[in-house]
Amino acid sequence: MTQKTLIASIIGAAALACGVIGVSIPPARAAAPADISIPFVNHGGIRDWRADGDHGLYVQDVHNRWYYASLMSPCTDLPYAEGIGFETRGIDTFDKFSSVVVRGQRCPVTDLVASAGPPQKPHKGK
User: Fold this and answer.
1) pLDDT category, 8, cuts 50, 70, 90?
2) Which of 10, 41, 58, 76 shows its CA 20 to 30 Å from the CA of 95?
3) Which long-range contacts (CB under 8 A, 24 or more apart) does 42-51 make?
4) Confidence of residue 10 (pLDDT cuts 50, 70, 90)
5) What pLDDT digit, counting tens, does each position of 48-87 carry?
6) At 89, is the pLDDT very low, low, confident or very high (cuts 50, 70, 90)?
7) Measuring CA to CA, which residue among 122, 124, 82, 89 is closest to residue 108?
8) CA torsion angle for 48, 52, 58, 59 (degrees, to 10)?
9) Between vectors from CA 58 to CA 78 and to CA 35, what angle results, nearest 5°?
10) How far apart are CA 50 and CA 36, in angstroms?
11) pTM for the complete prediction?
12) Is 115:49 a contact under the CB 8 Å cutoff?
């Protein structure tokens, strides 16, 4: 192999390794949205909650931010409950892996998203 051929081979190999020749680089992926969670649930992290029928509930944190928790299946007593429990499974954070406990019924959460809050009730006109 001559010196010119050797240099050309080295340059070709370096260019191939750097992605200059014939190698396509996949496009960058969009960043996944961050998982939403409410910290310090067992220490006052949740300020308020409102049932949305038996399929979900609005949850307000101590900073007055609202979230909507979708439930895996109907939680039959939720619309009538005066108090509920938030089961966080060992960590003190309410998220999409947590559950709501209503009158002994464990209702798993499937999704927790930011929300504007529960819909306003219409005012009774005179």
Assistant:
1) low
2) 76
3) 42/88, 42/92, 43/92, 45/92, 45/94, 46/86, 46/94, 49/84, 50/118, 51/78, 51/79, 51/81
4) low
5) 999 999 999 999 999 999 999 999 999 999 999 999 999 9
6) confident
7) 89
8) 40
9) 120
10) 18
11) 0.70
12) no
Residue 23, token pair as written in the block: 């190698």
d(CA 86, CA 99): 6
What is the C-alpha to C-alpha distance for residues 120 and 58, in angstroms, rounded to an integer? Answer: 12
Assign 3-class secondary structure to the chain.
Answer: CCHHHHHHHHHHHHHHHCCCCCCCCCCCCCCCCCCCCEECHHHCCEEEEEECCCCEEEEEECCCCEEEEEECCCCCCHHHCCCCEEECCCCCEECCCCEEEECCEEEEEEEEEEECCCCCCCCCCC
How far apart CA 10 and CA 19 sit, in angstroms, is 14
**Cβ neighbourhood burial of 14 (10 Å; 0-12, 13-18, 19+):** exposed
- What phi and psi, each to the nearest 5 degrees, are found at residue 15? -65, -40
Whether pLDDT at 99 is above 90: yes
